[in-house]
Write a structure and sequence with these properties.
By secondary structure, the protein is α+β, with helices and mostly antiparallel strands. It has two helices and three strands, in the order ββαβα. The protein has one domain.
C-alpha cells in the first residue's frame, strides 16, 4: 500500500499516512482521521497538499500501526470519506 505525505500550510505540519491509490485526502480533518491524530487547533476544513508517495512494505515511524497493517485508513473504521 502506498505511503503518502500531506502538508498543511496553515500549521506547517507534514503527516505520513497509508491509503489506497484511489483515495485522496483533501482536508486537515480527513488527514487526521486517516492518521489517527487529533486535529488540534487547525480547522478540519483546512486544505492539505499531497507531497510524496512511495510503496511501503513496513510500518514507518509516525504511522499508527493499525493504519500500517491495513486496519486504519481505507482498511475500515477510520472515519475518512472515500
Amino acid at each position: 500500500m502506498p505511503t503518502y505525505e500531506y502538508f498543511c500550510e496553515t500549521n506547517a505540519e507534514t503527516i505520513e499516512v497509508l491509503h489506497s491509490m484511489n483515495h485522496t485526502i483533501k482536508t486537515w480533518g480527513e488527514l487526521c482521521a486517516c492518521s489517527g491524530l487529533s486535529a488540534g487547533k487547525t480547522p478540519s476544513d483546512t486544505p492539505v497538499e499531497k507531497k510524496l508517495s512511495a510503496v511501503s512494505l513496513l510500518p514507518k515511524k509516525g504511522v499508527p500501526m493499525e493504519t500500517a497493517s491495513g486496519g486504519g485508513c481505507c482498511g475500515g473504521g477510520c472515519g475518512c470519506s472515500h
